[in-house]
Amino acid sequence: MRIPLYALSGAVVFSGAFLLFAIQPMAGKQLLPLFGGASSVWATSLLFFTTALFIGYLYVYGLAKLPERTQPLVHAGLIGLALLFTAASAISVQDVSVSFPWGERFPALGVLAALAVSIGIPYVLLASTGPLVQYWHGSLSGKAPYSLYALSNAASLLALLAYPFLIEPVIALRYQRGAWIALFAVYALLAAASAYVFFSRAVSGSLERPLPEPASREEFFRRVLWVALASLPAFMLVATTTQITQVIAPVPLLWVVPLVLYLLTFIIAFSGRGRSIFTPLLFLASALAAWRFTPAAHADLALQILSYLGVLFFCGLACHALLYRMRPAVPSLPLFYLLLSLGGALGALAASILPPLLFADYWEFPLGLALSGALSIWLLPDAFFPRILDARRIFIAKIVLMLLAASLFARLVLADQGAIAVASRNFYGNAKVVFDENFISLKHGTTLHGTQFADAAAARLPTTYYTPGSGVGRAVLFEQGARGAKGVRVGIIGLGAGSLAAYCRPGLPAAAQEGDAYVFYEIDARIERIARSYFSYLSHCEGSEARIGDGRLILEAERERGALGAYDVLAVDAFSDDTIPVHLLTLQAFELYAAHLRSPESILAVHISNRYLDLGPVVFRLAAELGFNAALVADSGESTPGGTPSNWVVLSKDAGVFHSTAFVNAGSFPPAPAERPWTDDYSSLFPALDIPKPWE
Question: What domains sit in the chain, N to C, each tagged with a CATH number?
């Protein structure tokens, strides 16, 4: 039975696009634990995906230059190479990334290298599928193949929606890889069949190669415009995703939503819709709405996210509708898709790698808003301007309004200076040291990560989330009382300003076998420099040290060497801004923490203060799984100068810990444990989300 040409082409395009986008959140999730759960992991991954897409399109462009008989043979060789590569690598990035020692020093390069070595060749093959099959189909049928482009985007959309809602909650990560490889083998058979059909027609001589469009100065500028119109939506995609995940959590759910909207604009635009004269007006309105909520108050988070997603959607729709209107004939399709992918790669590069090098804060999204506002003004039809204005005055009005949009970005940057003495940004986020009359403060994003009294007489006092009434403060005081003159060993995942070292006791009695030891695990070497340069907590504690690297990975390495920490208190406090490194809150992570505790009455303290996530049920479920007793300590911070509200979950194998004087009047009503424990293979953000409602 002969398969219709369109059915075969559609099956290849659909399966290739589905696998192309299914692997993105899967690979990103595998990478998160290796780089501290930083939101920059996904931004850098998007750069890899867009660059690999460009390479795939470049391959198609070069392939189209070859004789028709040669094209399917070369492509069949790439299919075979990709199958061998996939079988050898098993689509696992964990083992790959550790072989790049410079990945710790340059984590962005580590992410790119891990992705390239683990999924590079299969990804390039999948990326080439859409434009190549469309080109072949157009050559065979003589018809414009843009419906296949819409089908490709629909498959991509389906994959992205399926991952957080169907795949991730049901299938363990290790089984996801196996299923992907099996489906990739099916796709390879379909792709080989498509190549065979094209080869057969080429051999029979029934193909006609239409002449490409002649090059001209006008055509050159049109191609430049293709790149520019593709780059802005890609820039906004990465910037919007970074903006959202920096506030809540870098997890597949929050990666997928912006990417879904981005793809949806392709589907709408390349199906011939989205060309309404109201599209630029909606684009401008969405940019103004997003500007209204930059930055936003805590209660406006839902409106903030919706406005950000709105401007991303209308930016993509406006730009992609213009690209569809400027689409070329079939002979120029490979070049068209190549330049679109180049624009996407340049936009992703400008929003992922360059901002940490150029900006001290997260300014790429406001910059994207300014560019979006300027473009939307330029695209406004003359019908939206007063009739008394002629074409020249409308042109001048647009220029003035575009300059105003650019000035809003400058205003935001200047207004952000304030009292900041030190501001820096790298792969792990931005850090600010702020001086005022009473305190020196460290902020990560918009979240306070420690303060110290400016007055030297009060500089040794613990402040913020670490006061004696906090969960971790009570834990340290309990262990000091239990061990008496013996030194207390405290491990802390997350350094901040080093505030917990304020509990370090100098000058223990000579009979003490060891002094207090405070070991900080910090992934960002810059934070140690800040803590030692602008705060004195560490210098006041002779037994303090900072171990640079991801806390969980270092603890695992220490366990493998038999160098367990024997900690009396182990505090997990490695949250940046309000985001959470999910890999620090899994069952396997808590088993590791338990192994590093000294005795049954040792304490594991988990900091769960968060404006948008209720992590209490998650931690209580993990405690129940491992046989820990747990108590929620919610402290207002009002009883201690410099204190701030905090929520800690304190865990211990010995229930007697919570009946001690250190924990008198400390317990709060415990939450119901989560239905399912988080593991390295499973985590779901839905039950933990606690976003303020706009109407509340």
Answer: 1-205 (1.20.1250), 463-688 (3.40.50.150)
